[in-house]
From TrEMBL:
Protein name as catalogued: Uncharacterized protein
Annotated segments matching region Disordered: 61-81
Pfam families recorded: MDMPI_C, MDMPI_N
GO molecular-function terms, A-Z: metal ion binding
Occurrences of domain MDMPI C-terminal (ranges): 150-250
Annotated ranges, domain Mycothiol-dependent maleylpyruvate isomerase metal-binding: 11-138
A cellular-component GO term for this protein: plasma membrane
UniProt-listed PANTHER family: CONSERVED PROTEIN
Highest classification ranks of the organism: Bacteria, Bacillati, Actinomycetota, Actinomycetes, Kitasatosporales
Amino acid sequence: MTLLSHARYCDEILAQTDALRAVLTGADLTATVPTCPDWTLRELAVHVGAAHRWAGEIVRSRATEEVPEDEVPGAEGPDGEDPAALDAWLAEGAAAVVAALREAGPDTEVWTWVTERRTAFWARRMTHETAVHRADAALAARAPYEVDAEVAADTIEEWLGIVALAQEEGDPEAADLRGGGRSLHLHATDVPGAEWLIEFGDDRFTWRHAHDKATVALRGSLTDLMLVFNRRLEPTSSRVEVLGDAALLDFWLDRSSFG
């Protein structure tokens, strides 16, 4: 699996937002989101639209330091409770961040919260921010959810990178993801080659693409692996299979639950 192109990420931000808007159309926007229980569906949508506007402002202004979210125009969401206004607001925010990203290209230097200070970071991050929260919305609305295989695989790999960064920076939960001799294998049953082996070393964890025996294996469709990995689907679901030491999988999920 490799990174998607900058153009593909831009296209996906729009596609994932359109799919989120479709889920929201006709749904009860006051419903609680099971995977984000502090939010209603409307609040989830506002979170996504605000993230688009925040990232778009960073890219558009070529920010060299963090932009306070309360200084981003329109990030608070549309006035009133009109679903049509929310839909239009979501579409507008996605279009704006994509326009900024396309104009800047992938290599323009901007502030990010990682060591990679390029606009490419924001294209990738907003793709997966939208795709995962679309899953939240689908669960709340009891709507079907599917994501393209390349996007699902990249969502897993982006999250592995985020957890590794947290470990390097001394996050206490991520710091526990070590200990020689243990490993976790993710195996997509519907996409050839979509496999990851996460190995717990003495000081940190590492990962690679491999088909190998592990302490615990998680098997299922690539979409469902992505959902479990992002804590949107319980590993006890009948849609996936856990082989081996299930406690190690729980250990990983518990300690990579930040963010």
